[in-house]
Design a protein that fits this description.
Peptide chain release factor 3, 7-stranded mixed beta sheet, GTP-binding, alpha+beta, binds guanosine-5',3'-tetraphosphate, 27% strand, 8-stranded antiparallel beta sheet, single chain, 31 strands
C-alpha cells in the first residue's frame, strides 16, 4: 500500500461527552463492529466513581485502565480507525483538551433525556474554537427523552453548532420504533429484545411509499413524513466541505446500549470524517502528505510499575513514516533519539511496530526526556502549536514534608508536571512553589504518587488565587511594565517554561490591573499570538 493510501485510510478521532451519556458503551459497540473485541463489557470504564476522591486504589485502578484504553484501534471496511480516549471526569479536563489536539475529528455523545450537559458544553467549545469537525450522536433513544426538534435546538443554542440531522427517530422510549436514515435513505426498525445483532435496515427511498404505513403503522408513518418535511425545510443539507471545516455538524440518533443507529453512524463516519489533517506549527503548516516524519507528544503516562520509572510518551504522527530504530530529532533538546520498541495500539493491547503513518499514535518508552508538546522531526526545527496550558482552577502551596527527601520531591514534582498532571508555579519573590490544578482530586493523586513512586512526602497550604494570568507586555522596557512588576511583585510567578504569570486573587483584580496597565496583556492560556 502506498504512503498516500495509508493516509487516506486513517480516521483518528475522540469521543467526548458528559459522564454517563454513553461514551464507553458507544466505544465498545464501535469496537464490536470492527471485530476488535468479541463481547460486550470488554472496554473498561475509566470513570472515577463518586466518593472515590480519597480512595487511592481507585485512582490507581483508573490510571491502569486509562493506559489500556488510551488509544483503541481497529480496522473497519478497510479503514484504520484510531479512537483516542478522553477522560470524562471534570478534574481531568485538561487531559482531554490535550488529547483533542491529536484528533482529526470528534463524536459528541448526548443523552436524549438530559440534553446538553456542562461537560459537553466545555469540551465542544474547545472543539469549536479549534474548528474540529464534529458529529453529534444523541443516545438512549430507547428511553423517554426530549423531543427531537427541541434537542436539535438545544444543541444549536447551547453548543453554538449548526446542525443537520442525518437520521431521525421514529417515536421514543416505549414507543421507539426505529430510525429513518436520511443519509442512506433507509429505514431501521428497532427490535428491543434483540440487543446484539445488527439490524440491516430496509431501503426506503421515498417515505411516501404506503409500505411505510404497513411497517411502522399509520400514525407513526404520518408523523415521520411530517417531521422529515420539517427537517428538509429547516436544516441545511449536509455538505462535506462545511463539516470538515467545522461549520456544520451532522446529527445521528440511536441507542448505543441496544446497538441501534451505531452502524449507521460508523458507516457514515468512515465516509465523511477527515483523514489526517495538516497541522499548524509555529514555523509553518505541516501537511500529512509530506514524506518526512513529524509528530508531537500529547500525553505522557507513567509506568504502572513504580520500580521502573519509565514512562510512555504518546506521539501523534503528523507527517511521514515513523520507523523503528531510526534516529529522529527531539527538537526541544536538540538531540537525536531512536526507539527500539515503539508501541502501536490495537483494541486493548499494544505491540511493537516497525512503521506508523500519519494519524497513528505511537507509544515511546521514555525515561524522562519528553514532556507534553515536544516535537520529533527528521532534522527540521519545528514546534507544533495548540497545546497551551490553561489557567488552573485550584492553587495550593506545596511544602516538603520530609526534609531528608528534598531531591526526590523536586524530581517527582518535575516529572509529574511534565506528564501534565498539574502545573507548577514558582513565586518570583521567595521561590515558593505553587501547584495549580483543574480539580481538587489531583492534589491527592500527586501526594500519593510522590510517596509511592518517588519516596517523597509533601503537604499543602492554602493560597488565595483566583486565576493564573500569563503576562504579555507590549514592551518589556517601558515604564508601565516596570511599574506593574514592582507593584504586583508579591503576585508574580514563573511557570515551568519560565513564562511570567500573574496570580490574581479575584476577577475584580484582573479587571483593575488590566485597566491600570493597558499595555500589559493578561491571558488565561499560556499560548497567545
Ligand atoms: P460514559 O462512558 O459516557 O460515562 O457512559 P457509559 O457508557 O458508562 O454509560 C452510562 C450508563 O448509561 C450505563 O449504565 C450504560 O449502560 C447506560 N447506557 C448507555 N447507552 C445507553 C442506551 O442507549 N440506552 C440506555 N437505556 N442506557 C444506556 P449504568 O447503569 O451506569 O452502568 P452499567 O452498570 O450498565 O455499566
Amino acid at each position: 500500500m502506498s504512503f498516500l493510501e495509508e493516509i487516506q485510510k486513517r480516521r483518528t478521532f475522540g469521543i467526548i461527552s458528559h459522564p454517563d451519556a454513553g461514551k464507553t458503551t458507544l466505544t465498545e459497540k464501535l469496537l464490536l463492529f470492527g471485530g476488535a473485541i468479541q463481547e460486550a463489557g470488554a472496554v473498561k470504564n475509566n470513570k472515577i466513581k463518586k466518593g472515590a476522591t480519597s480512595d487511592f486504589m481507585e485512582i490507581e485502578r483508573q490510571r491502569g485502565i486509562s493506559v489500556a484504553t488510551s488509544v483503541l484501534a481497529f480496522i473497519y471496511k478497510d479503514k484504520k480507525i484510531n479512537i483516542l480516549d478522553t477522560p470524562g471526569h471534570k478534574d481531568f479536563a485538561e487531559d482531554t483538551f490535550r488529547t483533542l489536539t491529536a484528533v482529526d475529528s470528534v463524536i459528541v455523545v448526548i443523552d436524549v433525556a438530559k440534553g446538553v450537559e456542562p461537560q459537553t458544553e466545555k469540551l465542544v467549545e474547545v472543539c469549536r474554537m479549534r474548528k474540529i469537525p464534529m458529529i453529534v450522536f444523541i443516545n438512549k433513544l430507547d428511553r423517554e427523552g426530549k423531543d427531537a426538534f427541541d434537542l436539535l435546538d438545544e444543541v444549536e443554542q447551547k453548543l453554538g453548532l449548526r446542525v443537520t440531522p442525518m437520521s431521525f427517530p421514529i417515536g421514543m422510549g416505549y414507543d421507539f420504533k426505529g430510525i429513518y436514515n436520511i443519509w442512506e435513505k433507509k429505514l431501521n426498525i428497532f427490535s428491543g429484545d434483540n440487543k446484539t445483532t445488527i439490524s440491516e435496515g430496509v431501503e426506503f427511498n421515498d417515505v411516501n411509499n404506503p409500505e411505510l404505513d404497513t411497517i411502522i403503522g399509520e400514525p407513526a408513518a404520518e408523523t415521520l413524513r411530517e417531521e422529515l418535511e420539517l427537517v428538509y425545510e429547516v436544516y441545511p443539507e449536509f455538505d462535506q466541505e462545511e463539516y470538515v471545516k467545522g461549520d456544520l455538524q451532522p446529527v445521528f440518533f440511536g441507542s448505543a446500549l441496544n446497538n441501534f443507529g451505531v452502524k449507521e453512524l460508523l458507516d457514515c463516519f468512515i465516509d465523511i470524517a477527515p483523514n489526517p489533517q495538516p497541522k499548524q506549527a509555529e514555523e509553518r503548516v505541516v501537511d500529512s502528505k509530506e514524506e518526512k516524519l513529524t509528530g508531537f507528544v500529547f500525553k505522557i503516562h507513567a509506568n504502572m510499575d513504580p520500580k521502573h520509572r519509565d514512562r510512555l510518551a504518546f506521539v501523534k504522527i503528523v507527517s511521514g513514516t515513523f520507523k523503528r530504530n531510526t534516529p529522529y530529532l527531539h527538537v526541544r533538546n536538540g538531540k537525536k533519539v531512536k526507539f527500539s520498541s515503539p508501541n502501536a495500539f490495537f483494541a486493548e493491547k499494544k505491540e511493537i511496530v516497525e512503521e506508523s503513518f500519519p494519524g497513528d499514535i505511537v507509544g515511546l518508552h521514555d525515561t524522562g526526556n519528553f514532556k507534553i508538546g515536544d516535537t520529533l522531526t527528521e532534522g527540521e526545527k519545528l514546534n507544533f502549536k495548540g497545546i497551551p496550558s490553561f489557567s488552573p482552577e485550584h492553587f495550593r502551596y506545596v511544602n516538603n514534608a520530609d526534609p531528608m527527601k528534598a531531591k526526590q520531591l523536586y524530581k517527582g514534582l518535575d516529572q509529574l508536571m511534565d506528564e501534565g498532571v498539574a502545573q507548577l508555579f514558582t513565586m518570583e519573590m521567595n521561590g515558593r512553589r505553587i501547584i495549580g490544578t483543574v480539580g481538587a482530586l489531583q492534589y491527592e493523586v500527586i501526594q500519593y504518587r510522590l510517596e509511592h513512586e518517588y519516596g517523597a512526602k509533601c503537604s499543602y497550604e492554602n493560597i488565595n488565587v483566583h486565576k493564573a494570568c500569563w503576562v504579555q507586555p507590549e514592551d518589556e522596557k517601558n515604564e508601565e511594565f516596570k511599574e506593574f512588576k514592582r507593584v504586583k511583585q508579591r503576585y508574580l510567578a514563573k511557570d515551568k517554561e519560565g513564562q511570567l504569570v500573574f496570580l490574581a486573587d479575584s476577577a475584580f483584580t484582573i479587571q483593575m490591573t488590566q485597566s491600570k496597565y493597558p499595555t500589559v496583556k493578561l491571558h488565561f492560556t499560556s499560548e497567545f499570538e
